[in-house]
Amino acid sequence: MLDEVVQNEIDLLRSLNIMMEKPPEKPVILMGDVILDRYFHGWTNHLNSFAPVPVVKVTSKSESAGAAAHIARGLVNLGIDVKFFCILGGDENGQIISQQLHEERVDTSCIRVAAHLQTVAKTRIFGSRESLIDREQLLLQFDEESNEEYPSSIIEKLIKSACAVLPGSSALVLSDYGKGVISDSGAAEIIAAAKSAEVPVICDPKLTGLHRTVGATVSLFEIRGLELLRRRNNLPDAETTAAHFIKEHDWEGMLVLGGEHGTTLYQKDEKPLYLPCLVEVPQQLIGLHDAAAAALAYALGDGRSLAEGARLANAACECILAAEASHVVLNRKKLMTRLDELAWHFQISDR
Prior knowledge:
The protein has helices at residues 4-20, 68-77, 92-103, 152-165, 184-196, 223-232, 238-248, 288-301, 306-321, 332-349; strands at 28-32, 34-47, 54-67, 82-85, 87-89, 112-114, 121-128, 137-144, 171-175, 201-204, 218-222, 253-257, 263-267, 273-275. By secondary structure, it is of the alpha/beta class. It has a single domain, classed as UDP-N-acetylmuramoyl-L-alanine:D-glutamate ligase, CATH 3.40.1190.20.
């Protein structure tokens, strides 16, 4: 017979898979910064003759709507309606993002345009030596963005509009890349409105924006971010650091993403829940936070616990880790398949 603990894990994974068959009917409210991600892939067989830098012979390139827009795309691919509140610049990059969201059936009616501003763009260049083994790596990234801030009037309108539709939603996601859409006062207002409407709040902040997450249900971190917080605050270990910030910011939990090192959920007055990564050969990390945020919104929006949400988020992260760079949008079929694979793994490991 299967060990009771293992059997409980298998039953939970199967329960999550059944849940995925029927997405929540209420929409997810998503607010955050948007970035256009560009990818160049090519061969790097030799160095430049004037400097010790690789020359990349480009073989393919692509563009995709990233950051909060990546979460929106993932949620739609999971079968959830999204009300997406963000700001785009009135430039070509903004038009590319808007067009892609429209093509992927993301509702763009809540998006605002600041005509005089530049849409943030990140360009990543990947390369590998042309040989029998194709193992590319990131060679360079460069960012383009405006030095001007978004008009406060547009931010205020976004917040008011989002607060107005919160009562009929399943979850609120705040994706804060520090670009200005999530303001200090706006974050406090919309989190308070979500708590009043009993809507779970998932925050994905920069470390410099933790004050904009007070009162959230759960906040996302990378393992290195948690370690940086530990050292800055002279705390003894990760568990103590998590407990300190959960109390200080009035969260119910903190979900720490470790990539190939797995995922850990810290909660008030409970032992940490560690979920290992079972991907044999992780390929890349781009989109990890976005996948975890989308999975948490799905699970918490369906009334599941943080522990159940963490398991779904860990499976979603594994989908991203196993994908090729620039092909990392979460979708329901792949996530359900991963849940099946994890249940099967636990079943055969107990034999």
